[in-house]
Amino acid sequence: MPDSRPWPAAVRALRHRNFRLYFAGQAISTLGSWLQQVALAWLIYRLTGSAALLGVTTFAALLPQLLVGPLAGAWIDRHDKRRLLIGVQGLLGLQAIALAALTYSGLIGPTLIVAMAALLGVLNAFDTPLRQSLLSRFVNGKDDLPNALALNAMLFNSSRFIGPPLAGLLLGFTSEATCFALNALSYLGLTAGLLVIRMAPTPRAPGSTGDVFREGLRYIAGRQPIRLMMTSVLVINLTASSYAVLLPVFAKDIFAGDARTLGWLWGAAGLGSLLGTLFLANRHALPSLVNSIMACALAAGAGLLAFAASQQLALSLLAMAVLGFAITNCNVGTNILLQTLAPEHLRGRVVALYTSTRFGFDAIGGLLVGVLAEHFGAPWAMAGAGVLLLAYCAWLLPRQRRLGRELTSMPREDG
Fold first, then answer.
1. Residue 157 · residue 151 · CB < 8 Å
2. Short name of one Pfam family for this protein (predicted)?
3. What integer pLDDT is reported at residue 415 of this predicted model?
């Protein structure tokens, strides 16, 4: 039951006990994940100096979201999601322990790094839709769901702001293995929260995994506004989100820096993302979400071009903040729209298809810019991504108003 005390509108989802427990555990877990992500990127570039391998590793980590994610969504809709999420947290912890041990012993190399990244990607293909689809259960309905989604994204982006600079400091004093070990411990936070949450088992979809999967595809394919929103997620993550692959190259080669420089660049993007989630936490109307997604897609394209052209760290940090704000508004805003409109019994599949598009095309974009950077240089690769995104915005702009009207008129089912 929700807390009877009044809560500020910007954090109203925290009035629900179950969501507060999830929120606290996820805050610890997400911070650890950012420590590992930054340390892994630095380890790859320190060992190999290859921008292409950065792209390959990101591709291996995110591609399972595209290949496994949609079927994972159908599978988890047929099981108790809370129990599954507890099991996945344990497996993620074991992956981080193995990565720490391999790095500490000196056995780690490019092949093992890519293999461990791929394993992480498979586990995340289950973890992400599990967490996202459980949020509506933690807040007991749809009224506070948009705020819960925004606060969940705020956790990710707060850690994105704090984690990379902290990882940079840790790498200066310790090693990548320490960051991986701390991440392994961080999974205990969410596991503990899930164990004390009180809730009925989640409803299970009837039928085979194939039947359940096809039902989710029919829901998305039969609704033109949702198809268009998914296409926008595809393009934004294919282009704008690919910047993350190239940050070690810019930190080391363009700005002649070290792991701390990489941490500052990632932290600036995290600050922008945090501000973006605070912005979304106070928005309610669907048409205004559509407008902000469109404006932020344009801002992301401009941010890519500004970062590509910059030779000054201060300007690049500002461009990173703009990119973080814009990408977060596009991705989280779309997630809020999809989950607000999706029926309860289809939410796992809708979330899985959304996350597979988001992270899968992030993987493809990262691979492409890594290869392009190897041949033409990182600034030209990032500039090309910016031009492509702005071209898509020019195509989408005339359709924006109609999209807002159609989304508003769609029924919101509790099914």
1. no
2. MFS_3
3. 41
**Which three-class secondary structure state does DSSP give residue 16?**
strand
Q: H/E element holding 352?
A: helix 347-376
Q: What are phi and psi of 206, to 5 degrees?
A: -80, 160
Calculate helix-pair angle for 51-67, 347-376, nearest 10 degrees.
160
User: How many contiguous H segments (helices) and E segments (strands) does the chain have?
Assistant: 16, 0
Contact 183, 309 (CB under 8 A): no
d(CA 259, CA 42): 7
Provide the pLDDT for residue 99: 93
Return the axis-axis angle of helices 176-196 and 17-48, rounded to nearest 10°: 160
Whose tokens are 């990882």? That residue is: 167
Inter-CA distances, 199 with 19, 71, 216, 245, Å: 11, 25, 25, 40
Chunked into runs of 10 residues, the chain (415 residues) has average pLDDT values of 63 85 91 89 83 78 78 77 90 94 90 90 87 81 76 80 82 88 93 86 68 77 79 90 82 80 82 83 67 88 90 88 91 83 74 81 82 86 92 83 64 50
Residue showing tokens 């599990």: 130
pTM of the model: 0.71
CB atoms within 10 A of CB 87: 12
16: β partners:
2
Task: Identify the structural domains of the chain with CATH numbers, from first to last.
Answer: 9-409 (1.20.1250.20)
Structure letter (DSSP) for residue 8: -
C-alpha 137: how far from chain center = 21
Calculate the CA dihedral of residues 56, 62, 66, 69 and round it to 10 degrees: 150
User: Tell me: the pLDDT tens digits for 175-225?
Assistant: 899 999 999 999 998 999 899 988 777 666 666 777 777 777 788 777 777
Alpha carbons 32 and 176: distance in angstroms, whole number? 12
- CB neighbour list of residue 295: distance below 8 Å, 6 or more residues apart: none
